[in-house]
Specification:
This is Small ribosomal subunit biogenesis GTPase RsgA. Belongs to the TRAFAC class YlqF/YawG GTPase family. RsgA subfamily. Monomer. Associates with 30S ribosomal subunit, binds 16S rRNA. It is found in: Cytoplasm. GO terms for molecular function: GTP binding; GTPase activity; metal ion binding; rRNA binding. By secondary structure, this protein is an alpha/beta fold. The protein folds into 3 domains: 91 residues, OB fold (Dihydrolipoamide Acetyltransferase, E2P), CATH 2.40.50.140; 168 residues, P-loop containing nucleotide triphosphate hydrolases (Rossmann fold), CATH 3.40.50; 88 residues, Probable gtpase engc, domain 3 (Ribonucleotide Reductase Protein R1, domain 1, Orthogonal Bundle). The protein contains 11 helices and 13 strands. It has a 6-stranded mixed beta sheet, with helices on both faces. A 5-stranded antiparallel beta sheet has the order 3-2-1-4-5, with no helix packed on it. α3 packs across α8. The relative contact order is 0.11. The structure holds guanosine-5'-triphosphate (GTP) and zinc ion. Guanosine-5'-triphosphate binds next to α6.
Length: 397
Amino acid sequence: MTPPAPAAPAGPPRAGQRGACRYGWTDEAETAFTAHRAAGLVPARVARAHRGGCDVVLGGRHSPTVPGDDNGGYGFGGDEQIRAVVPPNLAGSPPSTGDWVALRPAAGGTAATIAHVLPRRSALVRAAASGRSDPQVLAANVDLVAIVVAADVPPDLGRVERLLALGWESGGTPLIVLTKADAPGHDPAGAPSPRTATRHDEIAAVAPGVDVLVTSAVTGAGLDALAGTLAGATAVLVGASGAGKSTLANALLGADLLAVGAVRHTDGKGRHTTVSRELVALPTGGVLIDTPGLRAVGLWDAEDGLGHVFAEIDALADDCRFADCGHVSEPGCAVLAAVDAGHLPARRLDSYHKLLREQEWMAARSDARLRAERERRWKEISRAQRRLYEGRGGGRR
Ligand SMILES: Nc1nc2c(ncn2[C@@H]2O[C@H](COP(=O)(O)OP(=O)(O)OP(=O)(O)O)[C@@H](O)[C@H]2O)c(=O)[nH]1
Ligand SMILES: [Zn+2]
């Protein structure tokens, strides 16, 4: 592999690039990696996970003067991707997009191999598919979960609430990005159209404590504010197919392709090498993970997340007569009283009940699965002990 000549950074260092790598590697992470370094491993971040392998980007410290010093001979790193093998016996959960891994560099004809998946600080997880109770990690090590909602169609508020629950549960912070604010009636000079303003308010009402940013990839409205929010963070974009996730990602990246055109020219790569990936470094700082439009987003272990999403219902519940009130038909229910008085939309309470039921169902299923798993392990252990015992002749005395 010929390391490309390091491209000098265009202009002053930008947010997210100072001191640490563009993909979010930090001094603390480097310190925790000391033993892996000593073992000849290098840090890398998973840009895309496949069956049996991962595309990774090199994550180590970038020194503009000593190319390749920290990257196991791979050179400067930059946006170059490496295909790494995931050995079948890799301990722990399989690597997902956004994971940091300890990579054993390719040598002597062997491919680069993932030796360890480093501990995650957060993860966006959903139940894999309906009828199954496995979790699926959509993105690891995320700071922001950006829920993308199009302003040109009526929003599916239940879906927003569901994604918010997963977003809170991830350990990151959810954020709502309202796209297509340019739709009919918009004012190019700035003010959102009455329709966009209505959408904004509808969505803000189901997202207590969450920022709602209004954007348009067509006019560029709100993109600077969004880029500012994402700088220095790892954000994952989630939302229905057609919500405008990829267009948004390209708009955030496009600014870079123009601004650093000279740099991209020197590394000899085509303009579109970055946009087909799942994980990209933004020119304005920060890392963006795009996900394909998700049709089914089952809740997974989202009890606390639901508490955040429906914070106002939890607050009302303090005044219910019974401490274990289910807010269905109980006398003295403050939540039902709020619905009757028109302070809480009935849709909102229905959604709360629905998501809570799903959460409880999923929790029961995974408990049953864990129990079965535990029993299976005990059986294995006792079988092994029996064999050991019989082998010593203990069984035939
Ligand atoms: N008018 C307008 N159209 C937009 C905007 N953003 C996206 N679109 C259009 O919306 C459609 C869907 O956009 P995508 O970016 O492909 O949506 P997505 O969320 O990535 O969809 P999946 O890849 O299926 O998950 C495309 O036709 C875009 O051109 C916007 O800000 N304004
Ligand atoms: Zn109640």
